[in-house]
Protein: DUF2207 domain-containing protein
Amino acid sequence: MKSLILSLFLVFSTLGWSQTEQVTRFHSEIKIDTSALITVSEDIDIISAGNIFKRGIVRYLPMHKTDSLGNKLAMNYEILSVFKDNNIVSYHTEKNNDNLVIYVGDKNSFIPNGEHSYTIVYRAENTLGFFSDFDELYWNVNGFGWDFAINEVSANVYLPNNAEPIQVKCYTGRAGSTASNCTSTQKDDHVHISSTQIGKNQNLTIAVGFEKGIVNEPPPPPPPSFLETYGLFILALLFFLGLGAYYLITWQKHGIDPPKPTVYPLFEAPENLSPASVGILHKENYWSDLITSSIVSLATKGYLKIEENTNKALFGLVTSRTFNLLKLKEPNDSLPLEELEIMNNLFATNSNKTLNGTYDSELKKVVDKYQSSINKKHKKLINEGNNYKFVILPAILIIIFMAIGIFLGFKTNSLDIQQFIYGAISIFPFIFIGFIFTSRLWSLKWIFIIVCVVAVGLFIVYMMKNPLTKDNLNLYSLFGFLTFGAISLGAYIKLIKRPSEEKLRIQSLIEGFKMYLTTAETKQLQHFNPPEVTPEVFEKFLPYAIALEADDVWGYKFQEFLDKSTLDKTAYQAGWYSGSSFNALKFGHSLNSNLSNSLSASSTPPSSSSSGSGGGGFSGGGGGGGGGGGW
Structure:
């Protein structure tokens, strides 16, 4: 019983500590020097429970501020000393997201639970504001980056030579707040400002104005040079003109297509090509329907039989299908290479293969080998004339420009990390548009429209947040050229392709064959004396119709023949298939869809983010601040 009580005591003690883990006090001693430097000593008292404060505290100090003239100034810091509980403690610093991050403590040791006091002493420059009638310290004491309330935040400000301030203001709350839940008191040699109402992610901002001449005003920063202001814009313009000239010259010399042959209806598979060969040469890429067309082709030739079984569950609301592929005879060398590999690999150990939608690693190997075989068979003809070698130079130039732009942007302080990230997000849809130019998605116009709308919307939002000015011309030049580069490179990859005359000849024959398969109105082809779509013709060309995505129209043509003939429409049944009752209109399309889905499911592995002291200021308007936490 005693041990149980002791255990409960320890548990609730731990919970109590975790609930009270907090910063109890944040006090800053700020001494202004006549040289315009300030020395800041921050006392930060915490209660630790090992959840947030494990090794010590973290302090974030912003590395840039904007002065009254809109100039972006570097906030340079010199860490003088760091203490924990009045003892010197180890620390290290990092630069992250435009902040100097101070990690106080040892990464290999944890602090005990309880109360601790930390002191960070540092010197900072470019913190004062200089106006026509007075000078000012406009300073964020604790910063917004604390994820919990602070019981008390205060600051003592010491002016040089015991000078007295002429105006004092303070602001509290979240960024932009003009609330003044704080008090200021003039002491003998300093101004004391404090607040006890600093909530989570809130800050105390102080603004202390004093007479001019007390502090030696440093010379204003030199204005940016012509190259600093316009250099990236000029570079982007030169790259733009250079790429445009390169695109035009190389396209005229290597990218203009030869004339396409005239397409006429063709009533036989061109060049004795297999169904899969016809399909991949037509689309110039592989997709899952090709292996289905090869399996159906093998079935119509008598090498295998397709058995389709339908299973219903939940009172017929859920339907699942299982396919059995039965080997009927041994393959021979008369088969196309990819069909021969299907027979050898699919029935390597058994004459029966079941497709039930459950992942089958052996079937995946069959599909992978098939895809490799059909791609290899026609790779040379498909890729002939792609001219990808001409894409290398513009791609390298775009990468070089991006590297130069990012380097110069950060070096001249015309680009910060937040602008870079938001700008990169804004141009990502334009990069995707460039990808659409080069892919099958180009045929899906609605995707292109959606991406364009998103891209333009993001760009408008970015423009509203960052209106175009001389100061951010480099930023717009960087992202503007990268946007142009992404879209133009995608279009160039498509336009520089120059198919060979042989490929155009074969593709025109395939187009003529597809014209026969997809022309639903027989009268349109009567002039060319097409053969009747008898059961033999229907079965012979069904694999080609699947490979050319014409299985639905081909079924319609067969149904049209049956309607006109004297054959018993219910008597026909393909000998190589058993399953649901035959329907000429739906048979080919249904078989293709169901078998392709079953093959895909069975071969896919399962899947395993202004002045502040004179009024008109606000919380967060000054320098300093940042935030902190534990680590």
Observations:
- The chain has 14 helices and 23 strands.
